[in-house]
Specification:
With 114 residues, this protein is mainly alpha-helical. It is 75% helix and 0% strand. It has four helices and no strands.
């Protein structure tokens, strides 16, 4: 038998709507950011530039879980994702700074993308 807290009422509570909206917005932001990038011609750089919005989206989704989620295991996972993804984002930004293109035209193009 379903408990009252799990009984289907026809529509989710407003907090569930907000959580779902935040998760969907995170996914949309990831896709928009990734699809707006152009290939640099360097596989390593392209990998990093595509992974950055992917990781930022994961951070946003994990933060939404911490705000709205109730399950202790999922909340722990969200916290671990935040810790890990922030560290990886820092590493990727560092790598990009260390591998700036030498061509001034490419540098100005990259600056416009950021």
């Amino acid at each position: 038998p379903a408990s009252p807290q799990h009984a289907h009422t026809g529509s989710p509570p407003a907090s569930d709507d907000l959580a779902w909206s935040e998760l969907q917005q995170s996914m949309q932001s990831i896709h928009e950011a990734m699809s707006s990038l152009k290939s640099s011609g360097n596989n390593d750089e392209d990998f990093v530039r595509l992974m950055l919005p992917h990781h930022q989206g994961a951070l946003d989704m994990a933060k939404a879980e911490l705000l709205h989620g109730k399950d202790p295991q999922m909340r722990r996972l969200a916290q671990e994702i935040i810790t890990d993804q922030q560290s990886e984002i820092e590493l990727m930004h560092l790598w990009l700074r260390q591998h700036e293109p030498q061509n001034p035209d490419l540098r100005s193009l990259k600056a416009k993308e950021r």
